[in-house]
Amino acid sequence: MTNSQYSIKPLTEDDFQTMFQWLQNPHVSWWWQVGTQWPEFVEKYRQHIECDYIFPFIMQVNNNAIGYIQYYYTNMVDITWVNEISDESDSTVGIDIFIGNPEYFAKGYGTIFMKMFIEDLWEQSEIKKIIVDPQPENLQAVHCFKKLGFKEVRKVTHPEGDEIFYMELDRLA
C-alpha cells in the first residue's frame, strides 16, 4: 500500500528495535501499554507476524518509519464485548494505530494513514465493519476517528479496567 510519499509495509523483526523505542515515548506509552521488557515485546510481535488473524504494519513517510498500524479479525481475538455487540463479528476487523516518531506526532499523519488503511481494507470484500476502541481521554484519536466517519456506539470497560469508546465504521453499500 503506497502513495509516493506515504507507504505501509508489513512489520518485520528488523522493525522491532524502532518500535520498542517508540513504545517508551510518553505520547505512546500513555495509551499503548505493552510490557516494557524486551523479551516479552519480541515474543508478542513475533506471534503477530506469524498469526493468520492479526496483521501488523509499519507506516512510513518517504521511507522513514513513523508509526505502527494493525488490523485483526475481532472474532479471532479475546474481545468478547465486541462480539457481543457486533452483528457481523466474523466480518468485523479492529484497527490499532500509533504515531511513534515524535517528529510526526499530532500533525495529521494518523488521519492520512487511517484513511489509506481503511480504503485498502474495504477492497477486501469479506470485511463489512471496522471498529476502533480509543480511550475517551485520547482526544486526538477520537477526533481522528470521527473525522473518518466512525460513530460512537457506546462506552465499554476493558477487562484491564480502562474505559474506552467502542466506535465503528460500516462499509457503504
Descriptive notes:
A hairpin with a 5-residue loop joins strand 7 (151-157) and strand 8 (163-170). 31% of the residues lie in helices and 30% in strands. It has helices spanning 16-22, 26-29, 38-50, 80-85, 109-122, 139-147, and strands at 2-3, 6-10, 54-61, 64-73, 92-99, 129-132, 151-157, 163-170. It has six helices and eight strands. An eight-stranded mixed sheet has the order 1-2-3-4-5-6-8-7, with helices on both faces. It is α+β, with helices and mostly antiparallel strands and 173 residues long.
Number of helices: 6
Q: What is the radius of gyration computed over CA atoms, rounded to a whole number of angstroms?
A: 15 Å
Task: Provide the low-confidence segments as ranges.
Answer: none
The CA-CA distance between the termini, in Å, is 23 Å
- Fraction of helical residues: 25-40%
Which band does the percent of strand residues land in? 25-35%
Q: Could you spell the SSE succession in H and E letters?
A: EEHHHEEHEHEHEE
Q: Which structural class is indicated by helix and strand composition?
A: alpha+beta
Q: Find the count of extended strands (DSSP E, 2+ residues).
A: 8
Record the strand order, biggest sheet: 1-2-3-4-5-6-8-7
**Cα shape:** globular
Main pleated sheet = 8 strands, mixed
Q: Round the mean pLDDT to the nearest integer and report it.
A: 82
